[in-house]
Amino acid sequence: MPVIKVNNRSVHIQEFNKGARETVLLVHGMFSNLSVYYFNIAPILAQHFHVLMYDMKSHGMSEKCPDGYDLDSMSDDLFDLMNAMHLKSVYLAGYSFGGLVALKTAMRYPERVKKLAIIEAPDPNDDETRGIMEIYSKEFLVDYINNYTDTTRMRMGKRQLDKNHKMYEYLFNETSIKADMNNERSFFASPFIDQIPHDTLLIYGKDSNCLSSGRKLYHRIPRSKLVLIEGDHNVPIQQPAETGQRLKDFFTGWQIKIKQINHRLWHALRL
Amino acid sequence: MDAITTQKKLNSEEIFAILKGFITEVIGEEFVEDMDISRESSFTRDLEMDSIEIVSFSEKVKAHFGEHIDFTGWLSGMDLDQLINLTLDHIIKYIESCQSSK
Question: What InterPro entries does the database record attribute to this sequence (chain B) (predicted)?
Fold first, then answer.
């Protein structure tokens, strides 16, 4: 299991196609881990890019941490990881809460991001996300998982339920995650969102309850494009091939154009 | 165990024993004790492994069998239903087919 030390903390990473010149960095969502990309989306991107995935603090196989779940701290984690991996700039994609982390990183460190892709990032002011944290209980988790398993067809047994329950209990009761998320309520009101300079791809599920957040971002980010895929908030799990392909096409877009221009120039010079 | 790259051809029983060892390392001996791990065991239904555990298992398979197999590439060709229904036997057969095509 590849684990590196970033700021003295263990971070679980996975990489594909290490030899490639350019890197796509993938950020997973809250209560999830890098496996959301590992099996289908990352291999598609690895056809062209070096792909780096990591587990956020207290998620997956990364080290637990009692604080620093606000978007500044989470984007600092990403920035520090890039430095630890000697990555000057990357194509950056984030899903759900990871989409907010990617957005914040692009706002704070624009020179380190070549292009930005945001999948199903929610408006932190929506009551639903914060409601989950307020009313959390094991019964709630069972309901939540039943809904998740309905839409993704993934099943969860007793061991997994206990494992997830432990993670939720730790995050909700022993970390600052609730307060940190609450403090991000006005994130979408930030004027810096209107100044994001990057080409930005927004991917949302047609039936997602986050779709209105996608539309808000589309109207705010100057160079953005909104793409809707069949599915709900779980689109990367429901439609991994299409999600991966959309990301790959977006990230390789300019390279293909430059290749085409070079090709035409080369032909013109020969004539 | 997972740092050694296997050079010699293994039969299916030997591959099964290696994979069983990986599963024990990933989910822990205390859980494996209560399980009857067979070649027909599926990762999600029978072994109750979640996706990050399957990532960990995949890494061990890749580290052990090395360049002779493209395990991630093989998995990435599967849709969600195939991944959910993946059994140890499927993996054993895949590794055997890679060994015989060397």
Answer: ACP-like_sf
Give A208's Cβ-side CA count (13 Å radius): 27
Q: Which domain holds residue A247?
A: 3-126+185-265
Question: Mind listing the pLDDT tens digit for each residue in A80-103?
Answer: 999 999 999 999 999 999 999 999
Is the CB of A1 less than 8 angstroms away from the CB of B59? yes
- Does A100 map to a domain? yes
Place of tokens 């409601």: A131
Of B83, B24, B23, give the one whose Cα is nearest residue B57: B23
For residue A194, is it within any domain?
Answer: yes
- A155 is a domain residue: no
Determine the residue among B47, B55, B70 to mutate to test chain A binding: the one whose Cβ has the most chain A Cβ atoms within 10 Å.
B55
- Say yes or no for a CB contact (<8 Å) between A38 and B55: yes
Q: Residue A52 is part of a domain; what is its CATH number? A: 3.40.50.1820
Match 């009692």 to its residue by tokens.
Answer: A66
Q: Are strands A50-54 and A9-16 parallel, antiparallel or unpaired?
A: antiparallel
The Cα A76–Cα A101 span in angstroms is: 9
Please give the tally of structural domains in chain A: 1
Report pLDDT digits (tens) over A164-210. Answer: 888 888 998 899 998 998 899 999 999 999 999 999 999 999 999 89
Tens-digit pLDDT profile for residues A128-173: 666 655 655 556 666 666 665 555 555 667 788 888 888 888 998 8
> A241 in a domain, yes or no?
yes
Query: Least CB-CB distance to A160: which of B50, B58, B84?
Result: B50
